[in-house]
């Protein structure tokens, strides 16, 4: 069972991931015709005789409209000899190798639309390297189609990689901890080569960067990397990473706290499949330069291989950070002056006075949310894309016209770094008008006090004079613009998708998710 700190880390990741997805959603656009921009996508799968079933889903990536009533024809003739491809939906009928599915109009909620999902299993007499295409044809009733897409079903040689379910680590900020991650082949044939994918929160920084590993920085977790091993793992043989591998707890970690992550082993073919479905780039980032991370080498083998039981390939890494180190985040208000009718800049936010970093994803360190209450007498004509109208049932990033906004940023905020939210407000009434910036330090379920809660609220003052159209004024500055004052840390929504798919892969919800979508955060 997951510890309380682990559940909180996952919950915080889910909330922030939903925010990121909402931030990436375009505001509004003219609805395209189905024929012009249905934008189909279906994942490829590789399966093995006796191995687990996998899901193959056809998606429409167009979120601006639903296609109404439509018929989907799936031609299975090129895979029928070696794979069973089925749908359990009541709206699908079979005629030989052809599967026909009728889907009626659905309410447009702006979300990613799964058109049809199929279960794929290898037939018992299937042979490695057999491969064929599934052909999807979508015909809408509005006569704007048909539109087609193909995906690949392939038979691999079945292996069974396994690993330990849990690796528990403990250390103070600045310490380096050995992490003896290991893998065993429980299958009936040797596993040729392997890929280790590690993704985690800010506190799990790799202590070395190796030549056979590629690294990138993520959004809510500050690292992810994949290491390729040219090694054969024989039947019932177990191997671990060499003893140079470990994690270094950042010196500015909030303490005490806990950080979590996953380490998952893939066959090379399963890694390619997973990376495509999780929308990870072809290369995560640059390779390291600090030597080669090794496994013990053994004999060779040739065919593409797939894991027959992917549910036992992942290790949950639980790092407990010891010590006593927190941070003080201070709200930053603003004072602006302008004439009635003028539109002025209004930049607010907060600063991290340290010493610890915030927004790191640790269970006890705060994820800082900002509530901006604009003064009466002004109207927001432009809002940052990472701010939402707090009164909306359906949150829309950067929506103008609200009085109270909830704002967030992604990525770790280190000591001395500032977060800016840049608004443009129109002055509607003469006089002095007051609002406020209020910080919430903590997760939704538990408030976490910073070192000085007294400075978590700051005042917004607007001094409005009579007469004239005024002009641009205000405090300016910040990082604003359409970016909404994102901090200097990097971002990658693909890695969030990757971690979401990884959670599914280890049994939180399913095996893999075909992640090529845009979503909205609904409160």
Give a short summary of the structure.
The protein is mainly beta and 523 residues long.
Note the topology.
Blueprint: H1 4-23, H2 34-37, E1 40-42, E2 45-47, E3 54-60, E4 70-75, E5 83-86, E6 92-95, E7 98-103, E8 113-122, E9 131-140, E10 147-155, E11 157-159, E12 161-162, E13 166-171, E14 176-178, E15 182-185, E16 191-200, E17 205-206, E18 213-216, E19 223-233, E20 238-240, E21 246-248, E22 255-266, H3 268-277, E23 305-307, E24 314-325, E25 327-332, E26 334-339, E27 343-355, E28 368-373, E29 378-382, E30 387-389, E31 404-407, E32 418-427, E33 431-441, E34 457-465, H4 493-505
Parallel strand pairs: 2-10, 11-23, 13-24, 26-34
Antiparallel strand pairs: 1-3, 3-8, 4-7, 4-9, 5-8, 6-7, 9-10, 12-15, 14-21, 15-20, 16-19, 16-22, 17-21, 18-19, 22-24, 25-27, 27-32, 28-31, 28-33, 29-32, 30-31, 33-34
């Amino acid at each position: 069972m997951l510890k309380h700190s682990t559940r909180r880390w996952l919950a915080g990741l889910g909330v922030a991931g939903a925010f990121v997805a909402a931030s990436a959603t375009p505001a509004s656009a003219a609805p395209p015709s189905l024929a012009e921009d249905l934008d189909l996508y279906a994942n490829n799968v590789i399966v093995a005789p006796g191995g687990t079933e996998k899901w193959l889903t056809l998606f429409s990536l167009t979120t601006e409209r639903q296609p109404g009533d439509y018929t989907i024809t799936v031609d299975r003739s090129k895979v029928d000899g070696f794979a069973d491809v089925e749908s359990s939906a009541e709206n699908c009928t079979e005629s030989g190798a052809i599967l026909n599915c009728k889907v009626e109009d659905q309410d447009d909620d702006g979300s990613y639309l799964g058109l049809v999902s199929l279960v794929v299993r290898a037939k018992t007499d299937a042979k490695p390297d057999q491969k064929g295409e599934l052909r999807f044809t979508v015909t809408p009733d509005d006569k704007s189609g048909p539109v087609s897409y193909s995906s690949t079903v392939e038979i691999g040689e079945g292996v069974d990689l396994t690993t330990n379910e849990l690796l528990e680590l403990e250390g103070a900020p600045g310490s380096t901890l050995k992490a003896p991650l290991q893998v065993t082949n429980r299958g009936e044939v040797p596993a040729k080569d392997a890929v280790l994918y590690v993704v985690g929160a800010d506190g799990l920084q790799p202590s070395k960067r190796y030549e056979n590993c590629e690294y990138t920085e993520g959004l809510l977790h500050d690292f992810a990397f994949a290491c390729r091993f040219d090694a054969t793992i024989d039947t019932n043989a177990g191997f671990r990473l060499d003893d140079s591998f470990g994690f270094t707890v950042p010196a500015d970690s909030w303490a005490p706290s806990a950080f979590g992550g996953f380490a998952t082993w893939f066959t090379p073919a399963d890694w390619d499949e997973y990376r495509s479905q999780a929308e990870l780039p072809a290369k995560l980032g640059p390779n390291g330069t600090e030597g080669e991370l090794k496994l013990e080498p053994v004999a060779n083998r040739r065919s593409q291989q797939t894991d027959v039981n992917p549910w036992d390939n992942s290790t949950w890494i639980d790092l407990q950070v010891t010590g006593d180190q927190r941070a003080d985040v201070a709200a930053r208000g603003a004072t602006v002056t302008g004439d009635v009718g003028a539109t002025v800049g209004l930049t607010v936010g907060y600063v991290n006075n340290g010493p610890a970093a915030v927004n790191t994803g640790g269970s006890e360190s705060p994820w800082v949310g900002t509530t901006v209450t604009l003064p009466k007498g002004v109207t927001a004509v432009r809002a940052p894309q990472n701010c939402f109208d707090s009164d909306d049932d359906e949150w829309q990033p950067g929506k103008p016209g609200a009085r109270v906004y909830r704002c967030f940023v992604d990525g770790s905020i280190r000591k001395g770094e500032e977060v800016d939210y840049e608004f443009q407000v129109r002055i509607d009434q003469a006089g002095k008008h007051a609002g406020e910036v209020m910080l919430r330090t903590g997760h939704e379920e538990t408030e976490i006090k910073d070192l000085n809660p007294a400075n978590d609220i700051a005042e917004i003052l607007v001094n409005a004079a009579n007469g004239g159209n005024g002009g641009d004024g205000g405090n300016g500055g910040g990082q604003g613009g359409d970016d909404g004052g994102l901090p200097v840390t990097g971002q990658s929504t693909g890695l969030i998708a990757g971690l979401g798919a990884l959670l599914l892969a280890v049994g939180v919800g399913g095996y893999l998710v075909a992640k090529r979508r845009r979503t909205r955060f609904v409160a």
